[in-house]
From TrEMBL:
It comes from the Eukaryota. InterPro entries: Haemolymph_juvenile_hormone-bd (IPR010562), To_sf (IPR038606). One of its GO terms (biological process) is circadian rhythm. Belongs to the TO family. Pfam families: JHBP. Keywords: Biological rhythms, Signal. The keyword Zinc does not apply. Residues 1-35 form the signal peptide. It comes from Maconellicoccus hirsutus (Pink hibiscus mealybug). GO terms for cellular component: extracellular space. This is Protein takeout-like protein. The keyword Ligase does not apply.
Length: 271
């Protein structure tokens, strides 16, 4: 029994000594390791002069400054970790429609989204005290091009097919609403971090064309596309959320990349 207790205590002392040595090694390495450099980039030159936090016309300034930047941003900017957004590749978009008239599932693989470069920035509401921002946008057209697969039914007819798809939305209005917090980093500067966001939207119309429906039967394919376009309001109930998700990811990724690199006081200087 004494021997067992001795072996147990000995094992505990060995483990404790190992942890102690590991901690010493870690502290030794940390002592000579270079500190992580936190980036503090200025606003991109194409943004122009930042809007001041105490500007009584802050909302107007944000729109005036931001509107011309959209076309440039969609080209991408590696320095600010912003990918090319025109066109924007969406790896998979899934539409599941279930109504009395239409019950189908469609997937669009590697969809190319066109139209972001033509977005119009129409209004802004910025509340720096509540850390809440709302941006309003409008675009004439938003086009998805890609490869689709569809199966299901429309009325009494089955619908099947795969091939090229064109889904074009028109008269699209949406708002990007988000809240943010400020994180104080080791360099003494604050960086914005989006905490939550929503993207309400309205779509005025939709055009859809699916090639090679019913194994290439031209008559059935044309009739089906005509029916889908006549009933676009039912279809858009499923297309809309997928579009909103895609746009939300674009805004969060773009703003997140910028916010990680540009201190908040550079975005809205107070003096």
């Amino acid at each position: 029994m004494v021997a067992n207790m001795f072996r147990s205590n000995n094992r505990f002392l060995c483990e404790a000594f190992t942890v102690f040595v590991a901690c010493l090694c870690w502290l030794q390495i940390a002592q000579y390791a270079e500190p992580v450099k936190i980036p503090a980039l200025p606003l991109p030159s194409y943004v122009g002069k930042a809007c001041r936090a105490n500007d009584p016309n802050l909302n107007e300034c944000v729109v005036r400054t931001g509107a011309p930047v959209i076309k440039r941003i969609t080209q991408g900017d590696p320095k600010y970790r912003i990918p090319k957004l025109e066109p924007l590749t969406i790896s998979k978009m899934r539409i599941e429609q279930g109504t009395k008239q239409v019950g189908m599932t469609m997937e669009c693989q590697e969809c190319q989204l066109y139209g972001l470069s033509e977005v119009n920035f129409t209004a802004a509401r910025v509340d720096l005290k509540k850390r809440h921002v709302e941006w309003d946008f409008w675009m004439d057209k938003l086009m998805f091009l890609g490869k689709y697969k569809v199966s299901g039914r429309v009325l009494i007819l089955p619908i099947t097919g795969s091939g090229d798809a064109n889904i074009t939305l028109s008269n699209v209005t949406f708002s990007f609403l988000y809240d943010y917090d400020l994180d104080l980093k080791e360099n003494g500067k604050n960086y914005a971090r989006i905490t939550n966001s929503t993207l309400p939207y309205k779509i005025g119309g939709m055009y859809i064309n699916l090639e090679n429906l019913f194994n290439g039967d031209k008559l059935l394919g044309e009739n089906m596309n005509r029916f889908l376009n006549e009933n676009w309001r039912d279809i858009i109930k499923e297309v809309g959320p997928a579009v909103a998700d895609a746009l939300t990811e674009v805004f969060r990724a773009t703003m997140g990349a910028m916010a990680d690199l540009v201190p908040f006081e550079y975005l809205f200087p107070s003096d």
